[in-house]
Write a structure and sequence with these properties.
Elements: H1 2-18, E1 27-33, E2 38-39, E3 44-56, E4 58-65, E5 70-74, E6 79-82, E7 85-91, E8 100-111, E9 115-126, E10 134-144, E11 162-164, H2 168-171, E12 176-181, E13 196-201, E14 210-214, E15 220-224, E16 232-241, E17 248-257, H3 260-286, H4 291-325
Parallel strand pairs: 1-10, 2-10, 13-17
Antiparallel strand pairs: 1-3, 3-8, 4-7, 4-9, 5-8, 6-7, 9-10, 10-11, 12-14, 15-16, 16-17
Helix pairs in contact: 3-4
């Protein structure tokens, strides 16, 4: 599934370049709607995604649903489901000659628990000339069952659907601003849009100090798997829940803990590399001949040491990557 998401995004980015993207002030409204405002448990409901006052030739949409009350049944082709988010990538295969407006797609859901559920939408939408559309986002709320209670305590069976104009992007922000592990380097380097990482730790490491800071200070972060590390692969899971209470994003780190044999080889290799660097420095210093030549060669010596360090680092990273692939 993750590979499909990656390929979809790569295709989407290629098409954005093809459309010669610019950032003009094209505006439109992207909203969710349904012909039903209330359903019963086990009943299905159809949610429509639409755009008005603008035409779109390429987009990535994110439809968030309350997975405690609904389960996703079906939707258009080229969709991927991650947790409670349905990601849909679409582009105009004619290069912008047949953009879409009005209803874009329909998504089918099945109610599994009673209560009030919210559906929200987010995404990036582009016009037929490659302009980013500034979107006003609207979500909906749907009541499951007949237990809607009015303020006076009586049961209210006439529940009207609510379409809100809240700042959906902010309320659904599940990005991390900072993700770091004390004394360790993530591979690849952290990026808010990248959710999978690897790191290798020493055999003496039993616990990890993880720093995970969300972009939205009202979002919450839950960290699992940072304690009691065992030899081999360990899985660190960081779950970010947006301020709306149900939009989520999961960052995963595959933490490889070296065994005693691997640790000994690793430390031996580090020691050998340090000795080689020291020997190179001494040799270069002795061969300089004089203080003047030594000053002239200092910069060259420094560059050589840096190149050697980079070479060693690359070899170690390749070894780590090969180990994780296995």
């Amino acid at each position: 599934m993750k590979k499909k998401i990656f390929l979809s995004i790569v295709t989407f980015l290629f098409l954005l370049a093809f459309f010669k993207i610019s950032y003009a002030s094209t505006t439109g409204t992207v909203y969710l709607s349904s012909i039903k405002n209330k359903i019963e448990k086990e009943e299905e409901i159809e949610i429509s995604l639409s755009i008005e006052n603008a035409k779109t030739a390429a987009f990535t949409s994110y439809l968030y649903f309350d997975d405690t009350k609904f389960e996703y049944v079906s939707g258009p082709d080229n969709t991927n489901v991650v947790e409670n988010c349905i990601i849909w990538v679409w582009y105009d295969e004619t290069g912008g000659n047949t953009p879409k407006s009005g209803e874009l797609a329909k998504f089918q859901f099945k109610a599994k628990e009673e209560g009030l559920a919210t559906f929200t939408v987010n995404g990036e939408f582009y016009s037929e000339v490659g302009q980013l559309i500034q979107t006003d986002l609207k979500g909906i709320e749907v009541q499951v069952g007949n237990n809607q209670t009015a303020q006076d305590g009586t049961q209210n069976n006439d529940y009207n659907i609510q379409v809100t104009k809240t700042d959906e992007a902010e309320a659904a922000n599940t990005n991390l601003e900072v993700l770091a592990i004390e004394n360790e380097l993530l591979n690849p380097p952290f990026d808010a849009g990248t959710t999978n990482y690897q790191v290798e730790v020493s055999n003496e490491t039993t616990d990890l100090n993880v720093f995970a800071v969300p972009e939205d200070e009202k979002a919450t972060v839950q960290i699992e798997g940072k304690d009691d590390l065992k030899e081999g692969n360990n899985f660190l899971k960081i779950t970010v829940t947006a301020q709306n209470g149900f939009s989520k994003k999961v960052y995963e780190v595959n933490v490889y803990k070296r065994n005693l044999e691997e640790e000994a080889k690793y430390q031996e290799q580090v020691k050998e590399n340090q000795e080689k660097l020291e020997q190179i420095y001494k040799t270069q210093k002795l061969s300089s001949g004089s203080e003047e030549k030594e000053e002239e060669n200092q910069e060259k010596n420094y560059q050589k040491v840096i190149l050697i360090i980079l070479g060693v680092t690359i070899v170690l990273r390749l070894a780590i990557l090969i180990k994780f692939k296995k």
